[in-house]
Amino acid sequence: MIKDHLEGLLRKVERPGRYIGGEWNAVIKNPARAKMKIALAFPDVYEIGMSYLGQKILYAVLNRHPDLLAERVFAPWPDMEQRLRSAGLPIFSLENKIPLREFDLIGFSLLYELNYSNILTILDLAGIPFFARERGNDVPLVIAGGPAAFNPEPVADLFDAFFIGDGEEGFLEAVLKLQKLRQTGAGREEMLRALAALHGFYVPCFSPTHRLQETGLEVRLPPEQGLWPIRKRILSSLDSGRFPEKIVVPDIEAVFDRVALEIARGCPQRCRFCQATNIYFPFRIMSPEFAVAKACRSLASTGYEDVSFSALSIGDYPFLEPTAAELMSILSPPKISLSLSSLRPSGLSSGLTESILRVRKTGLTIVPEAGTDRLRAVINKNLNHREIMEAARLAFESGWRLLKLYFMIGLPTETQVDLEGIVDLVREIVELGRTVIKMPPQINLSLSSFIPKPHTPFQWLGMEREDVLEEKQRFVRSGLRRQRSVRVKVQPTPVSILEGVFSRGDRKLGSVLVQAWKRGARFDSWRDRFSFSAWREAFAAEGLEEKNYLGPLDTEARLPWDHIESGIHKEFLIAELERAMRGERTPSCLEMSCLDCQGCATGVRPKKRLARGNEAAVPGRKIGRSGAARTERAETILSSAFGEKIDHLVRYEMIYAKTGTARYLSHRDLTSHLKRAFRRAGIEIAFSTGFHPTMLVSYAPALALGMEGKAERLEFKSAREFDPPRFLRRLNRFLRQGIRITGLRRLADAEPPLNKRIVGMVFSLPLDSEEVKQALAARKKSQGAVSQDDGDFLRREMEAALEKAGESGIQFWVEKKKRRLFFRLPEPSRSGLRPRDLVSSVLGLEEPNFDLTREGFILTNPPSGEKEAVPPPS
Ligand code: SF4
Which of the 8 DSSP states describes residue 64? Predict the structure, then answer.
């Protein structure tokens, strides 16, 4: 049903590629054969959701099971939401376009509190009641997991259950249990009881709430049966086959569009504001050999040109430098680059920068967090002024011209001196840059506001008032106003305030969320979409105030999230808070034999404590002989080159078709897809030289979004001899549906480049499509030409439209048999006439709602044997 309406929707929305699916490595199973259908829902737009590793891991884990089908759903952008509503259509999954309500289970990823309003949009468009208590047996179970689920209470009424911890560890087990129960005809309550009996699952409907007199906050009481408190599930080893290699490659650019290899989970540092260190505790690492092999296999299966080591604190991965060096020795010939997320300055070394810079220079971020060493001691940021400056020096000396710096304002005990410290530190880095690179470096400074987060030592502290935060932002901005190369980006304070409220909120906030959604709250994490007034009205409507959630809390008080155990004990958090107030540092887990925090009582310990700088002491864990075999295999995976090697570069012209839903990919998206397909197929394309080597591919003029192309052209250079039929067979295996290579030709040296050979293009309009038939009938009526033959009418209107546009000599004709209007336009640089505008004018349409096809190109000297694209009738 959805498939029948999809075209009509896609034509009218911005970035239709968000909704088409069919990406490389997407898993399309037969829904009729699945014993359990799971929708993995992400409450943000496709480009954000496709950057999230957690969903990719679950997608792979679930789809590996023959009885299960897992498909993806993302929040529709407001234009699509409105189109779905006006067409009366439900939200659907990307793979099989299944309406969301037809799934057995919906699993939401909760990453960020400001995505909560989008959960309601998804539920509403699915026809699923907002509140779990209103759902019957005919409605899928709705479960949530992810970092924000560590305080589930603000959204506890929306979900049937929450999963706490590492998804790979317990989610599959739960799904299989539910599947068995389903086969026996079990109802909703029985299934929820089964989940409540599983370690890591929280089922809110079984736990009564209790309002505390002292704080006014609502907390949860233990259920009559089931496990309590809720302990997170922990994956004991990252060296398992669970980490997916066949990652879905988004066809429109995602925010993080690369292979993200999670080489470590958890963080051994103990920054006191940081929730991630506690909820992802303990620190676990992937072995270097496994990491290298995984990276290579993922790159081979995706065709990505960039791999990133992903971890909360990359610099604490004990084998970082040798792993990066080993990997880059494999990846630099095929020009694949390595980037590192979140490197602490002390982790930056010349060996490492050499690896990062080997192919192309990726961004570098330094995160001082605070302006002075004193405040960094309070927050336990294991970093000092000297280390920051040394890292900046190394970065400039290694060739970086742009640095990203992250700071927070409103931190506990912050004074004016600390704010001045931010300004001074940035100025000092700029000065250093001037000295080293002889020009002012570009500094992108990100200034966010401190938010006390649950499960941290600062969870009991208050958040700074909005006006105070704004004053502090102004101070830093004005202190850096004269630094023209410094760009300051601040998080709007109302957004931070709302995040603060929902981070430490209780169950009462569920109704505020619904009220705000009804008042239009959507995509609240998007600056241009955020409406604080909708939220303020919602709070007022529910008789609540934001400030009730932002003040300090007593360490003795029960907290709304106390029933969720991160594995770090409250006594340790309190002791850490006290140390913070005394300005005392706590060493990282790597520096201590034991922190005595009892966190390790979670039952999972890192297999071996790894002291930084002492990695060689861990037997068999360094990339050595045992790893060499695996690394060799990895090299083989990446070097499966196709075609005979020759000693010089030659030019090829490739012809391909872009049809079906692939026409909703922009030109830029298409070029990424093709380049990645070349890599997947092992087809070596030559690269440009310089800091940012790119494939030597040039394209014919871009095809407009939504337009089909039957004989598109591109030209590339390669030092390989290709046999065209084999080339076509090979490359076509690595392309998405809708893109097909139809020809390959080696170009003679004397042949001019593609852009010099194209003199015109042939387009066609199908006269049989419903939209065109309707538009034509309306146009004929308005022109008093109802009885005129369609062909004759179109010819008359075309002549009039061309005359109005001042274009002469443009050929057009109607082929009655094919029921198509054809026309030839000069190559775009020689004419300003756009085919869509011309047809819109002919049909008298304000908004084009028809499909055009580019049939092909008219070339100056077409190669012998090649037919001209749709010649006009003689
Ligand atoms: S380094 Fe600090 S801020 Fe970063 S993840 Fe670790 S504990 Fe958190």
Answer: T
Spatial distance between the Cα atoms of 477 and 473, rounded to a whole number of angstroms: 6
If you measure from the C-alpha of residue 853 to the centroid of ligand 1, how many angstroms do you get, rounded to a whole number? 52
Distance between Cα 277 and ligand 1 center (Å): 6
List the end-to-end C-alpha distance of the chain, in Å, as a whole number: 44
Answer whether 313 contacts ligand 1 (Cβ < 6 A).
Answer: yes
Atom of ligand 1 nearest to the CA of 267: 6
* H/E stretch holding 477: helix 466-479
* DSSP for 511-557, written as a single string: HHHHHHHHTT---TTSTTT--HHHHHHHHHHTT--GGGGTS---TTS
How far is the centre of ligand 1, averaged over its atoms, from the C-alpha of 462 (Å)?
A: 21
Tokens standing for residue 535: 């939220």
- The CATH 3.40.50.280 portion of the chain extends over 1-221+493-566
> Residue 513's closest CA among 126, 90, 131?
131
- The topology (CATH level 3) of 641-751 is Alpha-Beta Plaits (3.30.70)
Q: CATH 3.30.70.580 region(s) of the chain?
A: 641-751
Whether 761 contacts 858, CB under 8 Å: yes
Instruction: Quick: pLDDT tens for 249-275.
Output: 999 999 889 999 999 999 999 999 999
Residue 759 near residue 867, CB atoms below 8 Å = no
Centroid of ligand 1 to alpha carbon of 267 (angstroms): 6
Pairwise CA distance, residues 298 & 454, whole Å: 35
Determine the topology of domain 1-221+493-566 in CATH: Rossmann fold (3.40.50)
Q: Distance between CA 416 and CA 28 in Å, rounded?
A: 57
Distance of CA 301 to the CA centre of its chain: 19
Position 236 scores a pLDDT of: 87
pLDDT at 612: 44
CA distance 509 to 507: 5
Q: How far apart are CA 387 and CA 105, in angstroms?
A: 49
Query: What is the spatial distance between Cα 474 and Cα 375, in angstroms, rounded to a whole number?
Result: 20
Q: How far is the CA of 394 from the centre of ligand 1 (A)?
A: 22
383 CB near ligand 1 (under 6 Å)? no
Measuring CA to CA, how many Å separate 700 from each of 656, 712, 728, 736, 765?
A: 11, 7, 19, 20, 21
Q: Which region holds residue 596: left if phi is over 0, alpha if psi is between -120 and 50, else beta?
A: left
DSSP annotation of 193:
H
Beta-ladder partners of 403: 443
* 741 in Cβ contact with 656 (< 8 Å): yes
pTM value > 0.85:
yes
Q: Model confidence over 309-326: pLDDT tens digits?
A: 999 998 889 899 999 999
Closest CA to 21 of 835, 769, 639, 662: 662
114-118, 378-382, 697-701, 784-788: lowest mean pLDDT where? 784-788
pLDDT tens for residues 135-178?
A: 999 999 999 999 999 999 999 999 999 999 999 888 999 999 99
Sign of the dihedral defined by the CA atoms of residues 372, 373, 375, 381, in that order: positive
3-state SS class at 743:
strand
In the three-class reduction of DSSP (H, G, I as helix; E, B as strand; rest coil), residue 263 is classed as coil
Q: How far is CA 485 from CA 394, 406, 491, 527, 565, in A?
A: 19, 16, 20, 24, 45
Residue with tokens 């998206």: 669
Give the residue-averaged pLDDT of 599-609: 51
Q: Return the H-helix or E-strand segment holding 637.
A: helix 625-638
Sequence-separated (6 or more) residues with CB below 8 Å from residue 170: 163, 198, 199, 200, 201, 233
CA angle 709, 715, 717 (to 5 degrees): 150
Cβ atoms of 78 and 59 closer than 8 Å: no
Atom of ligand 1 nearest to the CA of 369: 3
**Ligand 1 in reach of 274 Cβ (< 6 A):** yes
**Is the shortest distance between the CB of 277 and ligand 1 below 6 Å?**
yes
Q: What angle do CA 408, 410, 416 make, to 5 degrees?
A: 100
